[in-house]
Design a protein that fits this description.
Elements: H1 9-36, H2 62-72, H3 74-83, H4 87-108, H5 111-114, H6 125-142, H7 145-165, H8 182-190, H9 208-226, H10 232-254, H11 266-289, H12 297-304, H13 306-316, H14 319-334, H15 339-360
Length: about 375
């Protein structure tokens, strides 16, 4: 039986599994389901895209899971600073990471392509990750696990009160529509530039607070995994029970405060924390306890350079052109029926090759 060392292999694999669906996994799965045409697989197609508003699909889990994983890594990455009483250096590291992610998010949204500052979108996926990481890191650095959990519960309850009780001019209190909710109202007041849906943004300022709870939940799990005194299988049991409890709590709360990904409602955060805990349990069991690693090597490559592949796959590197250049003949041979599947698979292969080159050169771009 293997206990936790300074680095959990399962985190890289789980992060890679998460990113896999963004960089082409969903397109590949959708093409395969369409080609097979099996009625039993058709219900799965709805899980390959986001929910329109209220509800949950598997694709909605990708973003929260990434934030959760960043939290799991905190007890391991912070240990060196806290054990040597270097809080100031740790604060600077956390602030630097948050600022870089916010700036990268603005860059990713295309501000530098036309320099139209008034029309730019300043809220972003990377910006939300940066701010959620910052809020959660401050709590993790300064409080013991019990108080971290209390802070997390307090944040979710505070957000619930704001969204349900504070009136929005022209709409009233507790309106959870795209235009009438309190979080969107705050974004319209203070966020410059353009919002994603005009009247609001799923990566808005206020939503960084409930999103930070996912990182705190991850840090609590990371503290448990780091504890050498607890048996590995017992850790799995504790984390899985916590995951089921969060799922149930999220569903129950969702009857009063609906599960809405685009608003990061407290019920959504609890529900996705539950799934994240269960996925962590599975990957920790398989990868770190049972030692099954070779088969997950492609996912590990993605997980070691997630920011690089996220930005590159969305425009900096034209992987589809690369795929057509390398595998264009193969796609024309297989015909139109299989070409979407072959295109998706070959694109993923090109991305993995790119990541393997970085891995072989020991290039890991982090912030």
């Amino acid at each position: 039986m293997k206990e936790v060392n300074s680095r959990l292999a399962c985190l890289d694999v789980l992060r890679g599994f998460d990113m896999f669906w963004i960089i082409g996994g969903c397109s590949l799965a959708g093409g395969l389901i369409s080609y097979l045409g099996w009625p039993c697989l058709q219900p799965l197609t709805r899980h390959l895209e986001h929910t329109e508003w209220i509800g949950f699909t598997a694709y909605d889990l990708i973003f929260p899971l990434f934030i959760f994983i960043s939290g799991v890594a905190m007890p391991f990455s912070f240990e060196r600073y806290l054990s040597s009483h270097q809080k100031r250096s740790l604060y600077l590291k956390v602030i630097r990471r948050a600022v870089i992610l916010i700036l990268l998010g603005i860059f990713y949204n295309g501000l530098t392509t036309d320099l139209k500052f008034a029309d730019a979108r300043y809220a972003s996926v990377l910006g939300l990750i940066g701010l959620a990481y910052f809020w959660s890191a401050i709590i993790v650095i300064n409080f013991r696990p019990l108080y971290q959990a209390i802070c997390a519960a307090g944040i979710l309850f505070f957000y619930f009160l704001l969204m349900k009780l504070v009136p929005v001019p022209g709409y009233g209190a507790g309106v959870l529509t795209p235009d009438g909710n309190f979080a969107s109202f705050i974004d319209r007041l203070i966020v410059p530039g353009q919002l994603l849906w005009g009247s609001g943004d799923p990566e808005g300022i206020l939503m960084t607070l409930p999103a930070s709870v996912l990182a705190i939940a991850g840090a609590l799990a990371g503290n448990l995994l780091k504890n050498q005194k607890i048996n590995s299988y017992r850790k799995c049991l504790i984390i899985s029970v916590a995951g089921i409890a969060c799922l149930c709590a999220g569903l129950c709360w969702g009857m009063y405060f609906p599960i809405i990904k685009k608003l990061w409602t407290s019920s959504f955060v609890l529900y996705t924390a539950g799934w994240s805990l269960l996925l962590l349990t599975v990957f920790y069991l398989v990868v770190d306890i049972w030692g099954v690693k070779k088969v997950f090597f492609p996912l590990m490559l993605i997980g070691l350079n997630p920011l690089t592949i996220y930005i590159c796959a969305r425009g900096i590197i034209d992987f589809k052109y690369m795929t057509d250049f390398i595998f264009g003949g193969v796609m024309r041979v297989v015909g139109t029926g299989l070409s979407p599947i072959v295109l998706g698979l070959c694109t993923l292969i090109c991305e993995i090759i790119f990541l393997y080159i970085l891995y072989s050169k020991k290039i890991f771009i982090k912030v």
